[in-house]
Amino acid sequence: MNDELTHFSSAGRARMVDVSNKPDTQRVAVASGIIRMQPETLARIREGRIAKGDVLAVADVAAVMAAKRTPDIIPMCHSLPLTGVEVSFSETADSAGLRVEVIAKCVGQTGVEMEALTAASTALLTVYDMCKAMDRGMRIESIQLEEKRGGKSGIWRRGEA
């Protein structure tokens, strides 16, 4: 673990990290999150009975769009040539919500963690937006990085030392 905060200059000012001396490598990041909801809301999503349309199809597209636009909303994030974004949804084990998992990939000089996290967040926000008329109490939680691969630091997985 690096204790240095790289997004601050020696004078304490925010900066975009200079990655020009880093080699291009294959980068992969996996992020996930959960949205909790009423059982009836989940049933209506599953059955395609939400008035605004196919919730998961729209959330999938929203996630990809968000990954591509991450540098527009995260100030110190680099623009990356994404090579792939995969989005998948599954019901939570307790059937009280949906879990999203996003895999973002690129070949570049810096990682794609922010793209994966932004995509997961946006997917869940889209589910909320499409279902809020029937369930305003939905709760988004546990947005987190699960894994990252590539670059000098190699592989990191949640739960491993």
UniProtKB/TrEMBL annotation:
Keywords of the record: Lyase, Molybdenum cofactor biosynthesis
CDD domains per the UniProt record, alphabetical: MoaC_PE
Q: Which GO terms describe its molecular function?
A: cyclic pyranopterin monophosphate synthase activity
Q: Quote the EC number.
A: 4.6.1.17
Q: Which residues form the Molybdopterin cofactor biosynthesis C (MoaC) domain?
A: 16-151
What positions does UniProt annotate as the active site of this protein?
129
EC top class named in words = lyase
GO BP term, example = Mo-molybdopterin cofactor biosynthetic process
Q: In which pathway does it act?
A: Cofactor biosynthesis; molybdopterin biosynthesis
Catalyzed reactions:
(8S)-3',8-cyclo-7,8-dihydroguanosine 5'-triphosphate = cyclic pyranopterin phosphate + diphosphate
Under the heading InterPro entries, the entry gives: MoaC (IPR023045), MoaC_bact/euk (IPR047594), MoaC_sf (IPR036522), MoCo_biosynth_MoaA/MoaC (IPR050105), Mopterin_CF_biosynth-C_dom (IPR002820)
Tell me the residue numbers annotated for binding substrate.
76-78, 114-115
Q: Which family does it belong to?
A: Belongs to the MoaC family.
The record's function comment reads: Catalyzes the conversion of (8S)-3',8-cyclo-7,8-dihydroguanosine 5'-triphosphate to cyclic pyranopterin monophosphate (cPMP).
Query: How does it associate, per the subunit comment?
Result: Homohexamer; trimer of dimers.
Write the protein's name: Cyclic pyranopterin monophosphate synthase
Gene symbol here is moaC
